[in-house]
Amino acid sequence: MSVALHTLANGFRVVTENMPGLKSASIGVWVTAGGRHERLEQNGIAHFLEHMAFKGTTRRTALEIAETIEDVGGFINAYTSREMTAYYARVLADDVPLAMDVIADILLNPSFDQHEIEVERGVILQEIGQTFDSPDDIIFDWLQEASYPGQPLGRSILGPGERVRQFSRADLAAFVHEHYGPGQMILSAAGAVDHERIVAEAERLFGSVPARPPQQVEAGVFRGGETRREKPLEQAHFALALEAPGYRDDMIYTSQIYSMALGGGMSSRLFQEAREKRGLCYSIFAQAGAFSDTGMLTIYSGTSATDIADLASVCIDELRRAASDMSEAEVARARTQLKAGLLMGLESPASRSERLARMVAIWGRVPPLDEAVAKIDAVSVAGVSDFAAGLCRAERASLALYGPISAAPDLDALKARLVA
Fold first, then answer.
1. pLDDT of residue 216
2. pLDDT at position 345, please?
3. How far is CA 20 from CA 15, 118, 349, in A?
4. Strand 13-18 relative to strand 236-244: parallel, antiparallel, unpaired?
5. Which of the four pLDDT bands, split at 50, 70 and 90, describes residue 375?
6. Cα distances (Å, whole numbers) of residue 204 to 4, 149, 207
7. CB under 8 Å to 385, separation ≥6 — which residues?
8. Euclidean distance between CA atoms 148 and 31, whole angstroms
9. What average pLDDT does this structure show over 15-24?
10. What CA–CA distance (Å, rounded) separates 387 from 249?
11. 276: which DSSP letter?
C-alpha cells in the first residue's frame, strides 16, 4: 500500500492510498470547518449545511444526486464534527471520477433552494428534539459545554432550535464563503485508486477555485464545570471529564492507553469493579477524546437513582487507584488493544480515507503506521502512572448528570475525593 500527497496551486490537497486487491474505493472531501468554526450566531450552521449537501445543485436535483451514485451501486453520505465536515462516497473503481464529480458539484454549486431549506430545517429540528429523548447522547453535549463554557468548542454541533429556525439562504452561503476555500479542503481516497488520475481530476474540478485566507479558530481552553438536569427517567446518567492531551501532543498515546486500562473493555478496571463486582451498572466506559489543541478524558455510566452515589464514588476511587498500582500487564493489554483497534480499523477503504484526511489536517502529512505503532509501544507503565497521578491533581473537572440524580454528589465533593 502506498500513500501519496499532492497540493494544488490554490492550496487544495489530494491524498490517496492504493490498496491492492480491492475493486472499490472510498473517496471524499474533508473540509476543516465544523462546529468550533462557527460564531455564536452561527451555532448549528455547519451541520445545517451538511444536511443541504444532497438537496440539489445548479446541475443536479436532489433525486439526481442520489440516482447518479446509486445507479452505479455506490452510496454517498456526509457528517459534521466539531472540527471537520466530510462528504464521501463508496463506489467501484471505474466510477471514482463520477463520484468526484458529484462531490465537487455538491461543494461548489449548491443551489440552496428555499423549499429544500425549509424541509431540512424541519428535519434538523426533529433531530434536535430526538437527542433529548436519548439521555446517553445529550449528556455528552452538556459535558462538552461544561468543559468549554462560552467557547465554540463547547457548543452543540446541532445548535439550538431557536437559531436553526432563523438560518437563511444567505447565512448558508456566507458560511461556505468563509470556510469552504480550497485550502480548507482535503480530497482523500483509498482502495482501487490511481493517484495521478485523481490529482488530474481534482485539478479539473477544483483547480480554478480561488484561494482564500483561512479563518482563525478560537483556542479551546478546558475550564470545567457542572450541569445537573433532574428528570424522572429510568436511569441516572453520569459523565465526568478531566482535561487530556490534544491530537498534536505525543501524550495522546499515553492518554489513550490509560483510558483503555481504566475503562476500555470488559477487562478494564471500571467494568470489573463497577459492573462485575458490585453490579452497579450495565454499561460503563472511559475514553480519551481529542481535538487539535485540547482533549478530554471521559467516564460515562448509567445506573439507578439509588446507586448513583456509589457509582460516582467507585469512578473516583478507580481514578485514584490507577495512579498508584497500574501494572505492566494492564498497560501491555491496553497497548495491544490500541494497536489492534488501529490496524483492524484500517482494513476498509472508508476507514483508510478518513484517517488520511485527518492526518493531513492535523500534521500536514500522513505519518506511517509504523510510526504510530512505535509511539504506542513506547508508552511505559511509569508514563501511564504519572499521567494518572496528574489527573488526580487536576484543578479542573467537568460533571454532567441527567435523570433521577438527587442523591448524586456534586462536582466539588468528587474533586475533594479525587485529591484526598
1. 86
2. 85
3. 17, 45, 11
4. unpaired
5. very high
6. 19, 43, 6
7. 322, 323, 324, 326
8. 23
9. 96
10. 13
11. I
Residue pair 31/209 in contact (Cβ under 8 Å)? The answer is no
Cα separation of the two ends of the chain: 51
Residues 250, 295: contact at Cβ < 8 Å? no
User: Is the four-CA dihedral 200, 204, 205, 209 of positive or negative sign?
Assistant: positive
Cβ atoms within 10 Å of 417's Cβ, excluding its own:
16
Rounded-to-integer distance, Cα 18 and Cα 192, Å = 6
Q: Are β-strands 397-403 and 225-230 bridged in parallel, bridged antiparallel, or unpaired?
A: parallel
Q: What's the Cα-to-Cα distance from 8 to each of 34, 203, 204, 282, rounded to whole Å?
A: 23, 7, 11, 51
Which residue numbers are catalytic?
50
How high is the pLDDT of residue 165?
Answer: 97
φ, ψ for residue 216 (rounded to 5)?
-75, 145
Higher pLDDT, 238 or 420: 238
**What is the band of 1 on the pLDDT scale with cuts at 50, 70, 90?**
low
Find out whether 286 and 315 touch, Cβ atoms under 8 Å. no
Strand partners, 286: 299
Query: How far is CA 106 from its chain centroid?
Result: 22
Place of cell 473517496: 27
pTM score, two decimals? 0.94
Model confidence at 303, pLDDT cuts 50, 70, 90, reads very high
* SS3 annotation, 304-359: CCCCHHHHHHHHHHHHHHHHHHCCHHHHHHHHHHHHHHHHHHCCCHHHHHHHHHHH
Which ranges constitute the DSSP H helices of 45-134?
A: 45-51, 62-70, 96-108, 114-131
Task: Over range 206-233, report the average pLDDT.
Answer: 94
Q: Are 172 and 117 in contact (CB under 8 A)?
A: yes
Residues contacting residue 68 through CB under 8 Å, at least 6 positions apart: 60, 98, 102
Of the candidates 178, 188, 142, which has an alpha carbon nearest to the alpha carbon of residue 296? 142
Render pLDDT for 381-403 as a digit per residue (tens, 0 to 9). Answer: 999 999 999 999 999 999 999 99
Answer whether 408's CB lies under 8 Å from 236's CB: yes
User: Which residue, 19, 17, 32, is CA-closest to 358?
Assistant: 32
Cβ proximity of 244 and 295 under 8 Å: yes
From residue 123, how far is each of 116, 117, 130, 226, 358 by CA, in Å?
A: 11, 10, 10, 31, 29
Give the Cα separation of 284 and 240 in Å (integer).
Answer: 12
